[in-house]
Write a structure and sequence with these properties.
By secondary structure, the protein is an alpha/beta fold. The protein contains 10 helices and 10 strands. The longest helix is centred in the last third of the chain and has 30 residues. The protein is globular. Bound molecules: 5'-O-[(R)-(carboxyoxy)(hydroxy)phosphoryl]adenosine and zinc ion. 5'-O-[(R)-(carboxyoxy)(hydroxy)phosphoryl]adenosine binds next to helix 5 and helix 6. The site of zinc ion has 5 residues, from helix 4.
Length: about 350
Amino acid sequence: MTRILGIETSCDETAVAIVDNGHTVLANLIATQHELHRRYAGVVPEIAARAHIECLDLLVREAFVAANCTHDSIDAIAVTSHPGLIGSLLVGVTAAKTLAWAWGKPLVGVNHIEAHATSAAIDAPEPPWPAIALVVSGGHTSLYRVNDFHDVQLLGGTIDDAAGEAFDKVANILKLGYPGGPIVDQRAATGRADAVALPRTMLAHGSLDFSFSGLKTAVMYHVHGPGKTSGGLERLSPSDIDDICASFNAAVVDVLVRKTMLAAGAAKLRAVVIGGGVAANRLLRERMGEACAARKYTLHMTASAYCTDNAAMIAALGYHLLTAGRVSDLSLDARASLA
Ligand code: KG4
Ligand code: ZN
């Protein structure tokens, strides 16, 4: 049995988890900062970094209480080292290095996006690889070919807004609150998806890249009027807003499902996984399920608890990297970029 302490501070959630053998989650604690960022309708990096400092220590202690164990039983410490907000990442990486040094445990640096891409495996009976992974989060919208936990190849990604970012921006246009994804998801359930004609940007034939900024702009002009960036919201009834949410939600989901099917077809792979915050979206889960069933593909959807940022996925991937010998040393650096 190999027990990993995972630490995640790449954006606006401070998260700590304790996971055995990459799948048995003993503790999975998340301190969200949504309240701190809500009035800015987005994450303020400086505020995020300070909030991580304030609660990380306590969260590590609470994780040991929740898992009913002490640091003696930990075999390694896994931490998100990239990509993310540099100030936020630095807090987690510095804490993980300090604990690894003080407790004499191995340290494993984990790529946050690869953790999202492999998070469906936490609950899967067998690792689903090789598979096409769709990672849809606030900062990334990417398709990967996952050959194994430590062999993840990028096939395509967004050339402008990420899917989650588009959800947040549309929620902001409609003054629905932050983070926007879960609210738009909920409002969409009572709206009509064919109420507003919105674009589905597929880019060049066969392209596995994404673009959501045109869709966001189309919503903006629908609400404010052509070419306008403000006003008009007061003319809309609650059911008009539900309809806009449903139409936007359906447009995003359409593109995500079509591109994922395109990637699976091109790679001749019959297994699909989805992860990242937007993978919690109910319509996406439903439509991806239907598309995979129609082609007799197997679909592993990350459990909702592991879709939005969490440290269980960091500890889980950390376990597989550790067993593959991918250990970091105390010179591990936090990096803002994916590379
Ligand atoms: O993976 P995540 O927690 O953080 C990043 O790594 O970015 O993703 C957060 C994003 C936010 O943009 C949020 O609005 C979106 O995921 N999100 C959703 C849903 N739940 C969270 N988007 C659509 N539908 C949801 N149910
Ligand atoms: Zn994330």
